[in-house]
């Protein structure tokens, strides 16, 4: 009955959050004869969570980075690093998204922010709109996989899983996805006879490689000093940041400081300097330091607008979480989750079969529901089955988020699809067709991540 009410309200055109809350209210009031305030109480309880405090701060950090002139710096860094390859701007698109993912945490921010610059540049260099839109859409899915990630925060809270472990689990899969996308770009470049978009410049490539080496070696050196040499964490990080800022000024790096956002975040969590929630605040402070004082691209009027946008986005996300929490509670209370769990376990007790069925379900749901709503509905249903089958919940969280990100590329509810259709001024139909070839690397990544859990869990087990 509850599911039927939800589907009726959804088919009537109501937003998914209102449909979930409305279906729960109607069911409680008319079927169970419970007082309506139970709905409000459960919705408030659903968002009364310490980990959810990270949501507004991660959104704010992403908005600050998006508006602080960081986008062009990331683009120029990626152009210097891989722009000289065949199909250069396609590779730049992927590498730029890898870097941008470490700041925004959402696929839509990647598509709307960096995608605007990349699609225009690719069109100016003679690439078709369809190819530019396809590679931009595929690379935008990296946003929530590479930390920080808003969906990981929501999943971690719902499934009672370490957010820090989820963040670490996303690094290797994100790299695998990026490599498969770059192989796809290379295939199209070979097929169409595309050359490089900029000439090879040894000095420029060397500078980009030095930036990359700094990003890799700097945190590893800090890790050794703090964990193995037992240097005081706060003093060591402070001194290392002074050296980093001095090197940035001396060598004129393009993207080292922005790329350090996820490095500082994960480093702080793994060394115990702060929790994931406090890390979100640290990411905001870092973004403001870069925007206001180092690059001087932010001003107070812009900051006020960014804060208002953050309040609007946060309200939307938390209302979805609140509505989904009462809906999920009702599904559990009415025995729906137990019935589904019993049916699945009666059908199969093989983890690989369940993962296959779960992937098909999540891909389907991702086409119709916003990721936050989908996570809060699916977690109470699927996580108990994972626990009974011995599937690691960190691994399953990554599988779930990737499925839902792929769903963002499809009609009827794919937000990335609609954002890119507007940015590229293409019809939704043409945009959908442009994205179809890029499902090959995305689904290939999904298969690898689903059935090779060691790739996902290696870093979390190493650190935690």
Tags for this model:
mainly alpha, 24 helices, 79% helix
Overview of the molecule:
This protein is mostly helical and 464 residues long. 79% of the residues lie in helices and 0% in strands. The protein contains 24 helices and no strands. Helix 5 crosses helix 12. The longest helix is centred in the C-terminal third of the chain and has 34 residues, at 300-333. It is globular and about 70 Å long. The relative contact order is 0.14. The mean pLDDT is 82.
The description of the largest β-sheet is: none
* H/E series: HHHHHHHHHHHHHHHHHHHHHHHH
Per DSSP, the total helix count is 24
User: How would you sum up the global shape?
Assistant: globular
Strand content: under 5%
Rg from alpha-carbon coordinates: 22 Å
Distance between the termini: 43 Å
Annotation, overall tally of beta strands: 0
Low-confidence stretches: none
Which structural class is indicated by helix and strand composition? mainly alpha
Short description:
The chain is mainly alpha-helical.
Write the layout of secondary structure elements.
Blueprint: H1 2-11, H2 16-31, H3 37-47, H4 54-67, H5 70-82, H6 88-104, H7 107-124, H8 129-140, H9 150-159, H10 163-169, H11 171-192, H12 202-228, H13 233-251, H14 256-270, H15 276-294, H16 300-333, H17 336-347, H18 351-366, H19 371-389, H20 393-407, H21 415-424, H22 428-435, H23 439-451, H24 453-463
Helix pairs in contact: 1-2, 2-16, 3-16, 4-15, 4-16, 5-6, 5-12, 6-7, 6-8, 6-11, 6-14, 7-8, 7-21, 8-21, 8-22, 9-19, 9-20, 10-24, 11-23, 12-13, 12-14, 14-15, 16-19, 17-19, 18-19, 18-20, 19-20, 20-23, 21-22
